[in-house]
Design a protein that fits this description.
With 235 residues, the chain is α/β, with parallel strands linked by helices. The protein is built from 8 helices and 6 strands, in the order E-E-H-E-H-E-H-H-H-E-H-E-H-H. Strands 2-1-3-4-5-6 form a 6-stranded parallel beta sheet, sandwiched between helices. Helix 1 crosses helix 2. The protein starts with a strand and ends with a helix. 38% of the residues are buried.
């Protein structure tokens, strides 16, 4: 089976480059690469979730030939959620399970609704709070001029989002968070439960918003348990 992984704001497919080592041979880790980053750097990034999801579903048509699960962190959790709902609208095969990491439930707005519109200096100061961008990058004006359009577009995806009123999903859903993440609350993760009629659970891990990078072992083990359990695979 496959595990489809969606990156966080400003992130890329390479965020999951070490994940294949954490899964058995039965699970193929496939990281999606949205435009505006890495080898797609020259492509214009999406600034709204609807066209981003539509393009992702179009690209995934050939990858739905076997059972799969979906994982997304932060913005990736939002994109993963809407990706599954768009697949359902199109009558395509749905995943066996979904892990939403580092984001409150879809109906709960982010703390900063207009962060993507801030002047550069204020925007960069807000980025420091997340502790996901290296200081040497934040302090490099030329690099930031290169990455700011992508970061603003990604934050606009998250901040402009409002979920449609649709029936809940019918699959296992795992909500994951960092105990020191100031952007995500226990109540916000628990609220994901309204979006599925299947088994629902919440897991917390030491660390802040990017706990999946600072503590990858426990995170990948939790996702591995979810994926293999949903597929009926041992251990």
């Amino acid at each position: 089976m496959r595990l489809l992984c969606l990156p966080y704001a400003g992130g890329a497919a390479s965020a999951y480059r070490a994940w294949p080592d954490a899964f058995g041979a039965e699970v193929e880790v496939c990281a999606l690469q949205p435009p505006g980053r890495e080898m797609r750097l020259r492509e214009r990034p999406f600034d709204r979730v609807e066209p981003l999801v539509a393009a992702a579903v179009d690209a995934l048509e050939a990858e739905l030939d076997r059972p799969y699960a979906v994982f997304g962190h932060s913005m990736g959790a939002l994109v993963g959620f809407e990706l599954i709902r768009e697949l359902r609208r199109r009558g395509r095969p749905l995943p066996l399970a979904f892990a939403a990491s580092g984001r409150n439930a879809p109906h709960l707005p982010p703390r900063d609704r207009l962060m993507h519109t801030l002047p550069d200096d204020e925007f960069i100061a807000k980025l420091r709070r997340f502790e996901g961008t290296p200081e040497e990058v934040l302090d490099n004006r030329e690099l930031m001029e290169l990455f700011l359009p992508l970061l603003r577009a990604d934050f606009a995806v998250n901040e402009a989002y409002a979920p449609r009123d649709e029936p809940p999903l019918g699959l296992p859903l795992l909500a994951m968070g960092g105990v020191a993440d100031e952007e995500v609350s226990e109540e916000g993760l628990e609220a994901w439960g309204r979006y599925t009629t299947g088994p629902f659970s919440v897991r917390f891990f030491p660390g802040g918003h990017f706990f999946l990078n600072t503590l990858p072992g426990p995170v990948t083990r939790a996702v591995r348990e979810m994926v293999r359990g949903a597929a009926g695979l041992p251990g």
